[in-house]
Structure formats: C-alpha cells, structure tokens
Design goal:
Layout lengths: L4 E6 L2 E7 L4 E6 L5 E6 L4 E7 L5 E6 L1
Antiparallel strand pairs: 1-2, 2-3, 3-4, 4-5, 5-6
Length: 63
C-alpha cells in the first residue's frame, strides 16, 4: 500500500507534509533551498540533513 500525503508549498519550497492521519511534518531549508531539518507539529526534530558537494545527501539525525 502506498503512502498518501499532501504537500504544502510556499512558492517552490516544500514547507509541510500532511498524511492521511493528519500527522504534520515541517521542512526547513537553507539559503540554497535544500532541506536541512524536518520537525513534527510539536517542533521536535525528526531528521537533520547535510549535503556533500554536488548535492549528495547525508542524514545526520534520523528519529
């Protein structure tokens, strides 16, 4: 079964994702528009990301 969710954008930046159970996660980007931190609706950090040169993602924290 595929996950179903709705994305919320501000301009071309993904800022929020809402799943079918109304769970919200929020995306914080750096000055280049790359997602750096993903938090839940209480502000708890769920995932922190970094990037190598040329955009390869590195997960620093994954809860």
């Amino acid at each position: 079964v595929a996950n179903k969710y709705s994305n919320v954008y501000l301009g071309n930046k993904l800022i929020e994702r809402l799943d079918i159970n109304n769970n919200e996660v929020y995306f914080s980007q750096d000055s280049l528009g790359s997602t750096r931190i993903i938090t839940d609706s209480n502000g708890n950090k769920l995932q922190e990301l970094s990037y190598e040169p040329f955009g390869t993602g590195i997960i620093l924290l994954n809860l």
